[in-house]
Amino acid sequence: MNAPAQRPADGAPDPAVLAAQVMQTHRDEFIAKLVATTEAEISQLEHDEPLRGLLEASITENIVTSLHVVINRIDPGTVDAPASAVSYARRLAQRDVPLSALLRAYRLGHSQSLDLVLGEAVRLDLPDTAGTLITLVSLTSAYVDRVCDQIARVYEEERERWVGTRGVLRRHWVTQLLDNPRVDLRQAEAALGYRLSGSHLGVEGGGISRPG
Asked: Does residue 178 surpass a pLDDT of 90?
């Protein structure tokens, strides 16, 4: 667990807050670059337009929330994952995108965010630069750890639910194909992910009992 960040003396400006406030002014530009970098660096997260919108919303809300945590000196242990981040994790689970790709995106976002905010802290030449850097790393790392833990649980729960539901659906369509001569083949193909037109080869096997 990260050690709690030290607050400055009463009345003194908080260097970590000042650095985060400067980053806040570049927030939208940074988010756009991070979305592009995420898609370029993690091939599994190159999406069609609807899912790309969820990726962008997830990144946006995470950056906004993490800045809010630093600027208002909120305990990261009390913060929940943004709603769009939860929705995005569920959608990735439904599309068989590996959890490792999602968690890598969080590591990438954290690294890029730290590069920017730590650079601002150094550029501002604030007192106790080392302490400021430690505070920023501590707060942001604690936030990412908590959110990743929550997101991973959401993903795994949705994955289990989705696989179970898909298994039930497949069994339904197999039964329909065997028992219903008027089954809708297009719907069955979409549900099974398998082309039913053309010739199919089946092999039946059986054991041969030998006299003892």
From this structure: no
Give me the helices (H) in the chain, please: 15-25, 27-41, 49-71, 83-94, 99-123, 129-179, 185-192
Give the closest residue to 74 by CA, choosing from 11, 25, 142: 142
CA distances from 61 to 81, 86, 154, 202, 203 (A): 9, 11, 17, 52, 53
Amino acid at 177: L
Determine if residue 211 is left, alpha or beta; phi over 0 gives left, psi from -120 to 50 gives alpha, anything else beta: beta
**In the chain, what is the straight-line distance between the N-terminal and C-terminal CA atoms, in Å?**
66
Is pLDDT above 70 for 200? no
The pTM (predicted TM-score) of the whole model is 0.73
* pLDDT tens for each residue of 4-54: 444 444 556 788 899 999 999 999 999 999 999 999 999 999 888 889 999
Do 15 and 127 form a contact (C-beta atoms < 8 A)?
yes
How far lies 107's CA from each of 62, 75, 147, 196, 206, in Å? 12, 20, 11, 43, 52
User: How far apart are alpha carbons 48 and 3 in whole angstroms?
Assistant: 41
Distance in angstroms (rounded) separating the CA atoms of residues 33 and 40: 10
Question: Per this entry, what is the length of the chain?
Answer: 212
